[in-house]
TrEMBL record:
It is an enzyme of class 3 (hydrolase). It holds the Pfam family Peptidase_S49. InterPro entries: ClpP/crotonase-like_dom_sf, Pept_S49_pIV, Pept_S49_SppA, Peptidase_S49, S49_SppA_67K_type_N, S49_SppA_C. SUPFAM superfamilies: ClpP/crotonase. Residues 123-272, 370-521 form the Peptidase S49 domain. This is Protease 4. GO terms for biological process: signal peptide processing.
Length: 587
């Protein structure tokens, strides 16, 4: 018995000491990763930037050392980091060229991939080379890589080149099956954000605008690829109609879409010949390494602040919010930039399909005050529509990518009536005692009565009128001119320049140069805000969210998407300025 107690205590002590050792080792590992994260690497001569197009593309993203260490199927990619690295590759004499690995980009809008492509086009002005290789090319990846000096495909690979499509999901019948009916209030015949919940097909007005912006974006892509590959646009359209994806790889070489076919070892030999590295590891530098080295360069001259606003526009952030434009935080940050005398101009980088009209108005107000203190230039990303345009229109100058989706000047309200679900499906019944006629207004247990619906529509009308007035004031237009462009109509960035909703087509660098010009400064540097949260903050919260979302998906099955949409609607403020829906047109 004594031996049993002795061995048990020894085992427990051993486990305790091992736990302490592992805890200390974990702390040291985290400290090491934090040190590595902050340290700028040195770039060796004859290095090559390795640009891997694989993962979820976002405007900006925190570093993820754990993902880098253990690997991730679809890592999060930062557009800002990619552009910084490409600019660094252009300026750094130790970088000889860029090697692109084409895989799968998720969440990449046409404007975002064009941003990368334009950065690569600017890089080529340095006389350095770009080589692209892919086992398979998605349409977005091919569009980016079409700027390369040499496009290489695996002999058994494919190129997805098939045009563009938009295919929204309509939940109306499904919601009716579970006893939910949507009460809709809106202004604008093109304001079709409510259609997935109230219809089973696109309205004629919505089909018109989607057809317009899809064709406009596709024409921009055709023009860009045609210039880079010296292939006529008509031929590129023919290739898209001929299911090029399933054509033999040799045919892609013959028609000029691809330069050569080889396996990855052939690409390695090509890079060795370029770098003169016959043996050992190729001198490849990652995007993170080169971006860190570039940003570590001493800053000189006046300061231009680049402020990122991307995601849904919300009144305030909750613990479940991710990638949102939180009005409280953004307004506070813009006030700080306004009061900071070292900041000579501000570039507001907007990538948002809109959200709360109230939150949009608060941010608009701060942008207007900021403009009175110093130049403000908006750089539009993938989307700057509805609420995204609302917060942009007060700027001195607006720069949009030709393929940006913008406009969508309109307001709507969407309130679910779950009375049938509660009573007929769940067997829940309600009785009410109230002191005033509308004391129970907004309850899910009953639909709006006619007088309430009339008041709600009036509220929406006033919100729309205010929106158009804000645009007219910011763009120096008459209200009548704005109303002709409004009605919830979505425009591309190219169309927006033509109709006066934007000033010029270009990317973030275009906007920065314009901000410097308006501020009358020549020697300047940029600083980015807000700084992404460190990777270790919220690590366990994210794991908790992922676990709960997975559990909900497994439990709800096909009901998960509509019920999550319903949950999101319930959390929205009543007045919404939001793009019709997030388009899914990148193949």
């Amino acid at each position: 018995m004594k031996d049993f107690v002795k061995y048990t205590l020894a085992t427990l002590c051993g486990l305790f000491l091992a736990g302490i050792a592992l805890f200390i080792l974990g702390i040291l590992s985290i400290a090491g990763m934090m040190t590595m994260e902050s340290a700028a690497p040195s770039i060796k001569p004859q290095s090559v930037l390795r640009l891997t197009l694989n993962g979820e593309l976002q405007e900006d993203a925190p570093n993820d050392p754990l993902g880098d260490l253990f690997g991730s199927t679809y890592p999060t990619l930062s557009l800002r980091e990619i552009q910084t690295a490409i600019q660094g590759a252009k300026e750094n004499p130790n970088i000889d060229g860029i090697y692109i690995e084409a895989q799968t980009l998720l969440g990449a809008t046409p404007a975002m991939i064009r941003d990368i492509r334009e950065s690569l086009a600017d890089f080529k002005k340095s006389g350095k080379y770009i080589i692209a290789y892919g086992d398979n090319y998605t349409q977005g990846a091919y569009y980016i890589c079409s700027i390369a000096d040499s496009i290489i495909l695996n002999p058994q690979g494919q190129v997805n080149w098939c045009g563009m499509a938009s295919q929204p999901i309509f939940y109306k019948d499904l919601l009716e099956k579970i006893g939910i009916k949507m009460q809709v209030f809106k202004v604008g015949s093109y304001k079709s954000a409510v259609e997935p919940f109230t219809a089973t097909r696109m309205s004629d007005a919505n089909r018109e605008q989607v057809t317009s912006y899809l064709n406009d974006i596709w024409q921009t892509m055709l023009t860009d690829v045609s210039r880079s590959r010296s292939i006529k646009k008509d031929l590129l359209n023919e290739y898209a109609d001929s299911m090029l994806t399933f054509r033999p790889a040799e045919e892609l070489v013959r028609n000029g879409m691809i330069d050569s076919l080889c396996y990855i070892d052939g690409v390695s030999r090509m890079l060795r010949a370029k770098t003169g590295k016959d043996k050992g590891a190729l001198p490849l530098v990652s995007v993170k390494e080169l971006a860190a080295a570039t940003e570590a360069t001493p800053k000189k001259g006046d300061k231009i602040a680049v402020y990122y606003a991307y995601g849904d526009i919300v009144d305030r952030k909750t613990e479940w919010s991710e990638n949102v434009i939180d009005a409280e935080t953004v307004c506070r940050d813009l006030r700080t930039l306004r009061e900071d005398e070292s900041v000579k101009a501000v570039v507001l980088r907007v990538n948002s399909g809109g959200g709360s009209a109230y939150a949009s108005e608060q941010i608009w107000h701060e942008v207007k005050l900021l403009r009175e203190a110093k130049p403000v230039v908006v750089s539009m990303g993938g989307m700057a529509a509805s609420g995204g345009y609302y917060i942009s229109c007060a700027a001195n100058y607006i720069v949009a990518e030709p393929t940006t989706l913008t406009g969508s000047i309109g307001i709507f309200g969407l309130i679910p009536d779950a009375s049938q679900l509660l009573s007929d499906k769940l067997g829940l019944h309600f009785d009410v005692v109230k002191t005033n006629a509308h004391a129970d207004f907004g309850t899910l247990a009953r639909p709006f009565n006619p007088s309430e619906a009339q008041m709600m529509q009036g509220y929406i009308q006033r919100g729309y009128k205010l929106f158009t007035e804000r645009v007219a004031d910011g763009r120096n237009m008459k209200t009548g001119q704005v109303e002709k462009l409004a009605e919830g109509r979505v425009w591309t960035g190219r169309q927006a320049v033509e109709n006066g909703l934007a000033d010029a087509n270009g990317n973030l660098q275009t906007a920065i140069k314009k901000a410097a010009s308006l501020a009358q400064i020549k020697d300047y540097h940029t600083e980015y805000a807000p700084t992404p949260s460190p990777w270790y903050e919220g690590l366990f919260d994210q794991q908790k969210k992922d676990y709960l979302n997975t559990a909900l998906q497994e439990t709800l099955g096909t009901y998960y998407a509509p019920l999550m949409s319903l949950r999101q609607i319930r959390q929205m403020s009543v007045l919404q300025a939001r793009i019709p829906y997030e388009p899914n047109f990148i193949n």
